Amino acid sequence: MDFNKTIYENHQELGRPFLVAHRGVCGANIPCNSIAAYKIALQQKADVIEIDVAKSKDGKFFVFHPGMEHVFLKSKPISEMKASEVRKLFLLNQDSTPTSYKVPTLQEVLKLLKGKVYINVDKFWTDIEGIANEIRKAGVEKQVIVKTGDDKPTLDKVMKYAPDFMFMTIVWHKDKVTKKLIDAGVNVIGTEVLFNTDDDDCISDKYIKKMHKNKLLVWVNSIIYDERAVISAHHTDDISLKDDPKKGWGWILDKNIDFIQTDWLLMLQNYIASR
């Protein structure tokens, strides 16, 4: 990937959606958001790797999904621990058995991925100024994609601390702010759309064509962790694998979506190659 080109230019040259490895590629003894998971995602040629960011009690940034400590660490929240405490912990595998993998720092992960792949830094909205400083410190501004909701206080912070970063608004049902952000000078590259039904405005052919006409990209998640939380109208990894990929990944591809975030990178790659 040529990070001196715009992401839109790289997407056009790729000729297919960017495939996003959610928390790296994990399973069995490889925990999500671990250095090992990111190395495997690189080996499997992910176009984008999604990482989560958590902040310790003393202000140090780690790569971990906040709120999931009870699952992957069996510990109290990272936000209630000092960095020295976090560094002593080992991530758990899918059987809740401790592995040899520790919780990586944000700098460790950014160093690993520098110059290799686009990086979606999730949970950016939890500390926009602090995380933006970490990204600049690592020198990966041209690789990083950040996203937030569309509330004004959060967007004001984006405009203040990270107007040059590749930015996507997280859109539920209908996009209300993209044009305003572009007019304000934010480096908007597109939107992440969340939708309950196939009829939502943000997934309509009209909206997608309008975005593409303006050289903007659309991100859809096929990941699923809670069957009650519908974020892609059930066009998910699950239905693609256990039922019919045409109902999941195929439907998303037919909508000319530009990013697909998945937990099954190789399977999605194989499906795209078979079409």
How many structural domains can be distinguished in the coordinates?
Answer: 1
- Strand neighbour order, sheet with most strands: 1-2-6-7-8-9-10-11
Give the topology string: H per helix, E per strand.
HEHEEHHEEHEHEHEHEHEHHEH
CATH first level: Alpha Beta
Q: Alpha-carbon distance between the termini?
A: 24 Å
The total of helices stands at: 12
Explain this structure to me?
The chain has 275 residues and is an alpha/beta fold. It has a single domain, classed as Phosphatidylinositol (PI) phosphodiesterase (TIM Barrel, Alpha-Beta Barrel). It is 33% helix and 21% strand. It has helices at 7-14, 35-43, 69-72, 83-86, 106-113, 128-138, 152-161, 178-183, 205-213, 237-242, 249-254, 265-274; strands at residues 18-22, 48-55, 61-63, 90-92, 98-102, 118-122, 144-148, 166-172, 188-194, 217-221, 259-262. The strands form two sheets. It has an eight-stranded parallel beta barrel, surrounded by five helices. Strand 7, helix 7 (152-161) and strand 8 form a beta-alpha-beta unit. 42% of the residues are buried.
